[in-house]
Description:
Layout (H helix, E strand, L loop, with lengths): L3 H13 L4 H11 L2 H17 L7 H20 L5 H4 L5 H14 L11 H20 L4 H16 L10 H11 L5 H9 L7 H8 L1 E8 L5 E7 L4 H14 L7 E7 L5 E2 L2
Parallel strand pairs: 2-3
Antiparallel strand pairs: 1-2, 3-4
Amino acid sequence: MKSIKEVNTEAKIQERLKNNPQCLELVNYLFADEELQELQEYANNVSIRRLGYNDHGPVHMRQVVGNAIKMLNILHDCGIKTSLEKEEIGTFEDSMCAVILAGMMHDLGMAIGRQGHEEMSVMLAQPIIDRTLLHLFPDDLHRRVVIKSVAIESIIGHMSSRKIHSIEAGIILIADGCDMTKGRARIPLSINHAPRVGDIHKYSANAINRIGIHHGERKPIKIDVEMSGDVGFFQIEEVLLTKIDSSPAKEFVELYAGVAGQERKCYL
């Protein structure tokens, strides 16, 4: 059974896509896919209980989808074309489909382990992507190939350890980095009190109160991070900023972060 947080996140995604029937059909199909749900939940079990990492399960993957949709829509509102649009090989809807697929499956490889989980995610995601796109576009091989290729680039590039080239993949990279609020660290902090290497990621994420994604002032996308303590700057500088710096969408992003009640620091 899905958690309340999953259901609420799905509702927000559906609301953002209410004027995009094709992408709305896609997310509804994915939300109903039982194998995908089982893979997401098992990946989270391995991540949290076996490895001691933050949430990498169904809630996180839905949060990344929501972040990516919001950022792509902002670029669209500002008249900025995606890579598929600029290359005249696909539509904005195709780009949106690709980032939705990638967001929903980018961490499936955590079901196997942390090392090389991007490649494992691709392996596990491929049959689900294939059957999903065949359902949506049964008579359009071109669209299936293009969307699948961008989705896989986005999945395999989401850790900034591999060079990516499309705006779509760059958006997933940033959208993943933006899911670092205290909710992701709640469960691992509650079940594991013994100190261990890597705990700074849990404690720094626990200091992030809120991340806002809005229309920017100097650039199209503004990311605004509010934290409860200075330890949150580790999460900004070692995780989010690293991902933005590696993203082909970096030129479209401005980034501010600071402790609640204090002046924000401008990073980009």
